[in-house]
Amino acid sequence: MNKPENPxxxxxAEGLFKRAADAGGRALxxxxxxxENAWRRAxxxxxxxxxxxxxxxxxxxxxxxxxxxxxxxxxxxxxGAVHTPVSTAQAVSVITTAERPFHATISLNGExxxxxxxQVSAPxxxxxxxxxLVDEGEYVRExxxxxxxxxxxxxxxTRAAQASVAEAESTSVRARGEYExxxxxxDSGALSTEAIETRRSAAIAxxxxxxxxxxQLQEVNARLGGGYVRAPAAGLVIDRTAEVGRDVAGQILFRxxxxxxxxxxxxxxxxEALALxxxxxxxxxLVDGTTVEGRLRRLxxxxxxxxxxxxxxxxxxxxxxxxxxxxxxxxxxxxxxxxLAVPQSSILYDNxxxxxxxxxxxxxxHRTNIALGARDGDWVxxxxxxxxxxxxxxxxxxxxxxxxxxxxxxxxxxxxTTAPADQSGxxxxxxxxxxxx
Length: 437
Description:
Number of helices: 5
Largest sheet: 6 strands, antiparallel, barrel
Number of strands: 26
Shape: rod-shaped
Distance between the termini: 8 Å
Strand content: 25-35%
CATH architecture of the largest domain: Beta Barrel
Structural class: alpha+beta
CATH topology of the largest domain: conserved putative lor/sdh protein from methanococcus maripaludis s2 fold
Radius of gyration: 49 Å
């Protein structure tokens, strides 16, 4: 039962009830004594008609005494009795929004992958692999042979290209000689100017065909690579699909992590993406509990319109136990700043939309949608939707509906004053959670 706000009224009411109880007790004792005396006087011959009348008289006296006692108890106290109305409104804790120092921590989860993932394929088609020279986990130099090819067909292509070059050279020499002879007798009039120009054009065309044949020979030699599949850049071999005796036709044979540089691709919310800074460090944990420190190489270039997240890339140091494909969990500490924040317990969700209940002057609640930012323990940054010094429902918000009347459990206390209890994630209003009177 709720106590009245005035302690003097409560003391007076308590005295009235005590006096009423004493008076009722004395009345009952009197009635009891009268009944016992009447019963002794009435004792006699049970068959005597006067005996039955005396018994009935005794019962009547007892009933009248009980009624009198009840009447006295009902009248004692009079208008001085205290009547405390019982509120049916739901009891809730109330928090007043305020700014607080924020030491936010961003959770970062993602897969380790190469900064430059180089895919190596066979330089020629229609050839088989005769020998594998490197395996996964080995470090290769730029230009190092990785597999030896069966170059019989390729060598035939090389000889054909060389023959084409020789033929083009012969044609070029003949055409160049005819043009030079014609040019030497231009002034004699033996050949017309048109004939001379025709030989000149033929010589130029022969030179062009020779250049094309030489380029084709160069291409064949480059594609063969001396009969080997070579590494286009130095790095760690992280995958090998090449097999001895397998025909290659442009398939990927090896994957190289160029420079053995790895990074973590972590998905972060758009609010957290705005809080990150270039070069910021983050600590990632491996499955065995060991940690490695990464540095933010690239902020999210875009935000997915469906998930509202972006990809942040954290480069890892070399010579660590991290391997490409590992899933790492980590966190990044943001610089301290003053933000508007509320406890996590006051935030509700509906189809992914976060909201809180705001109290008006009549203690009626109104649903208000909010946008969330970074987190610091049990506190969440409010990006939009709330202002300073607004009263919101803390504990007890889960069973409220928009427009409900509530009964605050305590005077609102600004959220910023709860800073000493931040380590435990509690606040002053949280101590009253669960009380209803």
